[in-house]
Write a structure and sequence with these properties.
The complex is a heterodimer.
Chain A lengths: L1 H28 L8 H40 L6 H39 L2 H7 L4 H38 L5 H10 L3 H27 L4 H34 L4
Helix pairs in contact in A: 1-5, 2-3, 2-5, 3-5, 3-6, 3-7, 3-8, 5-6, 5-7, 7-8
Chain B lengths: L19 E10 L2 E11 L4 E5 L6 H8 L7 E6 L2 E2 L5 H8 L2 E4 L11 H5 L1 H5 L4 H14 L15 H13 L5 E5 L7 H18 L3 E5 L2 H9 E4 L4 E4 L9 E7 L2 E6 L1 H6 L3 H7 L1
Parallel strand pairs in B: 3-8, 3-11, 6-7, 7-8
Antiparallel strand pairs in B: 1-2, 1-4, 4-5, 9-10, 11-12
The chains are: A mainly alpha, B alpha/beta.
Amino acid sequence: MAIETLDRTAKRLVLTVQDYSLFAYRALTNLFRPPIYWPDFLIQADIIGFGSLSIVILAGISTGGVLALQSAATLSAFGAAAITGRFVSLTMIRELGPVLTGIMVSGRNASSMASELGSMVVTEQIDAMRALGVDPVRKLVTPRIYSTIVMLFFLTIVADACGIIGGALVTVFMNHQNGMQYLDMAWEHLRYPDIIQGLVKPLFFGYILSSIGCFYGMRTTGGTEGVGHSTIQAVVTASVLIIFVDFLATQVMLSLFPSL
Amino acid sequence: MSDAPDSALPNPAPAAEPVLAFDNVSFDFGDTAVLEKVSFTVAAGETRILLGPTGVGKSVLLKLANGLLRPTLGSICLFGQEISHMSEERLFALRTRTGMVFQEGALFDSLSVRDNVGFQLIQEQVADDEIDRRVREELRFVELEETFDLFPGSLSGGMKRRVAIARALIHQPELLLYDSPTGGLDPVTSTTIIELIVKQRDVCHTPSLLVTHRLQDAFMLSTHRFDPALGRMVPLPQGETDPKTTYLMLENGRLIFDGSLHELLRSQNQYVRNFLR
């Protein structure tokens, strides 16, 4: 009995991965064949990018501030409080900026994609779109995926900058250290590989969170309860995958840039 | 028909190729069989009414008709093209030649009535003025021109169905598929919807397949015609029925009747008789 359950679960998992792979591939390659719905790209870029700006700024400033608070206490024990700026900027740019932005945007947008598309599925709007001769993946999914990839890239830069500013505010006003020294340390020890690492990751994270959100939305079944279920699955899967892919991407980056 | 439907006289074979042809079509959801060896045709200018109680597979059959679902077995020909194994890309092009009205209207709730009705034209990048003109024309047809700027959320159930009909008609379809267009509506609104369907049938002669479980609506389609002079639906003389409007009936996924209204009323099949009671 237990073996049967395990077998069924494994098969379902493999089937889901297969469906997701085909779906994500199709959504991605739609950009290279007409028709392309450019206005939808701009609308989604506004919703995903500008709409997420406030939470990304807030999360960035808070995280940078916390990093400065925590690190200054530890570093001062070794007489190294002066390198707080370096610590905050490297941590934000290489790791926390992309991951936090990815997870924040995932919470906001993967959920909204799953619930919006899921509602359209259960009210037959997706079928209606197909019946009108319009490919819903091309019209609804492809613009969301590319807009998320592009906007997450810029949101990560905003989060990085806000994190460094947040760290600077804590350093100056709470730790009573020299602000110029903080900024000098934050800037001088940055290398191109650090920036590359920090800006390559959001491209993957954007793809993951948007494709997962849309995938779970488009395969919604079971009415409004199903929409809720899809939304939860989308956010949980996207968040876990972002953290897992971050680990893999870091490994790859470290092997590509051994000096990091 | 393979399942020997209860019909006194077989329908005369249409001279031209049928617009839609089901040939031994079966469909299942995993272990649950929904349709079994269903065969019928819809000829040019013909209105076919698919009867059956709720949950018998009527909506599934309609979705199979334009490739929204794929049959498990059998073949479906739409406009002379076999669609059972056709790629989704090719189906999109073929579906633009059909119009479908969904059970609850299935209007895009984030778009205005204008954008809903003109959805296909917007995707084809038709000029805005032309879209406005054609949308207003279709809304006039369903007598809802005043809803042009409204959103579906502010429309009643009956208005949503009429907007859905306008959306299905805007591309001048060669086949219309109606999925319970009067389901859940009050009798007065239902009659308004049926009048629109009769008007479309008698003015444009578009072949259609209509799914319903409401006998009153189904019979009204046979016993009424649209009078262009009066601008409304009028009853046909006593005993006359529209010869191009015929009936199909499903029982547990099997087609048990295919024929005219008179044949339906004279049917000896117990299931049909129970349904008509």
